[in-house]
Write a structure and sequence with these properties.
Largest sheet: 2 strands, antiparallel
Helix content: 55-70%
Order of helices and strands: EEHHHHHHHH
Number of helices: 8
Distance between the termini: 13 Å
Strand content: under 5%
Shape: elongated
Number of domains: 1
Strand order of the largest sheet: 1-2
Structural class: mainly alpha
Length: 275
């Protein structure tokens, strides 16, 4: 695999961890669902970014892949090499974060991008517009698949830490302490359940964007409109209200995964053999 270097410079103000379950998606300038966290608490001096899902970067790979579809892509060999390498870097970052290559086939797409880039650098050979468009579309499908898979299985580290029973000036009975611990456990489990559900909803929303983009460039129907609707969370759901969420989200994920896999298989047949 060709080695590509990706440097990320992210300036982050001091912040505190906050519950993300009630945060609703808004649309960015391109009309895509985007996610913003509550304003950080300025009294804290450390910020922890979740290692698996940094949502402000969820469309970076999409934008790099879309650059390969642009009309000017084949007009300049240096420009094309740069765009190919950026796509490789961002897809590699996504594959590393999700660890989903067997399911999403991200590295298969990277291999094709690498082959194009090396052929261009070593032999000065431009890829055909058709092959370039197909590989970019496969990249968009692989990213859609990675988000769909993660919607079902990639739950985060616990959003909250267990707290100790409150100390009182008068000695508390063992029964009172146990009751407090039990109530705290129930509250934490509900918060975690709500958080996990919100992350799954985000993954499915982003997957739909990647799938619709792939359909636009690949000339096929995305079938997104036929999928069951995923409801946004209010942020104050009870455990009974959330009870059916995993089943509903799993149904959407499985149907979307089947759509993506079908188009991945169709496109793979049109690509040249790398061996």
């Amino acid at each position: 695999m060709k080695i590509a270097t990706l440097v990320l410079s992210i300036l982050i103000p001091t912040a505190a961890i906050t519950d993300s379950s009630a945060q609703e998606a808004t649309n960015d300038s391109a009309g895509r669902p985007s996610f913003r966290e509550p304003r950080p608490n300025p009294t804290h001096t450390w910020v922890i970014i979740e290692k698996k899902n940094y949502w402000p970067l969820c469309y970076e790979a999409l934008e790099r892949l879309e650059s390969l579809h642009a009309e000017d892509t084949l007009s300049d060999k240096n420009l094309l090499t740069e765009r190919l390498d950026k796509c490789t870097a961002w897809l590699g970052l996504a594959a590393s974060a999700s660890m989903l290559n067997p399911e999403a086939n991200i590295y298969d797409v990277i291999d094709h991008l690498d082959a194009m880039s090396l052929d261009l650098e070593e032999n000065g050979k431009l890829p055909s517009k058709e092959n370039l468009n197909t590989v970019a579309t496969m990249g968009e499908l692989s990213m859609a698949k990675s988000h769909v898979v993660r919607a079902e299985r990639d739950y985060s580290e616990p959003a909250t830490e267990p707290k100790k029973p409150k100390t009182k000036s008068t000695q508390a009975t063992v029964g009172e302490a146990e009751k407090e611990i039990r109530q705290d456990r129930i509250a934490r489990n509900l918060e975690q359940y709500r958080y996990d559900t919100s992350q799954s909803i985000r993954h499915l929303a982003v997957a739909k964007v990647y799938l619709e983009t792939a359909a636009k460039h690949g000339g096929f129907e995305s079938e997104v409109s036929s999928l069951p609707e995923t409801k946004k969370l209010r942020g104050d759901e009870t455990i009974s209200e959330l009870a059916n969420a995993p089943f509903e989200l799993s149904r959407v994920a499985k149907e979307m995964s089947a759509i993506i896999s079908k188009h991945q298989a169709d496109l793979e047949k049109t690509l040249p053999d790398l061996n």
